[in-house]
Specification:
By secondary structure, the chain is mainly α. It has one domain: Hypothetical protein af1432, CATH 1.10.3210.10. Helix content is about 65%, strand content about 0%. The chain contains nine helices and no strands.
Length: about 150
């Protein structure tokens, strides 16, 4: 099994019951699109695997040790570099995330950027369908989301 296939299997299982906030689509579409963006821009397989699993630590019960066993330390460091600490308040969490990504290596930054690109594309598509109501899906609303 390739590294990409291993990462896809992990992400699919970890996110199996999750849906996207804005449109209710299966969550797995998001990490697949993040990985697609990374592949499209010529990143190596390890970065693509990190893209597939970029939300696994943050949003599922899979542990860092389990990911290291399956994908290796290098990939998990990229994943950890784009994972938010959900025990923090929203504003503090976002500030910590920004500082961590700013100090990260180029490949970790690429995973973060691909994540943001896909999120922006999704919001844009949803906005075309729902108009301003698209912002209702986000806890902090439009103003905080766009910061």
């Amino acid at each position: 099994m390739t590294l990409t296939e291993t990462a896809l299997r992990i992400a699919t299982a970890a996110h199996q019951d999750q849906v996207r906030k804005s449109d209710g689509s299966p969550y797995i579409i998001h990490p697949v699109m993040v990985a697609f963006i990374l592949k499209e821009h010529g990143f190596r397989e390890e970065v693509i695997a990190a893209g597939l699993c970029h939300d696994v630590l943050e949003d599922t019960q899979v542990t860092q040790d389990e990911l290291v066993a399956a994908l290796g330390e290098e990939i998990v460091q990229m994943i950890a570099g784009v994972s938010e600490n959900k025990s923090l308040e929203w504003e503090e969490r976002k500030m910590q995330y920004t500082n961590t990504v700013a100090a990260a290596d180029e490949e970790t930054k690429a995973v973060s950027i691909a994540d943001k690109i896909h999120n922006a594309e999704s919001i844009s598509t949803d906005y075309a369908d729902k108009g301003a109501a698209v912002w209702d899906a986000f806890n902090r609303g439009k103003e905080k989301k766009l910061v």
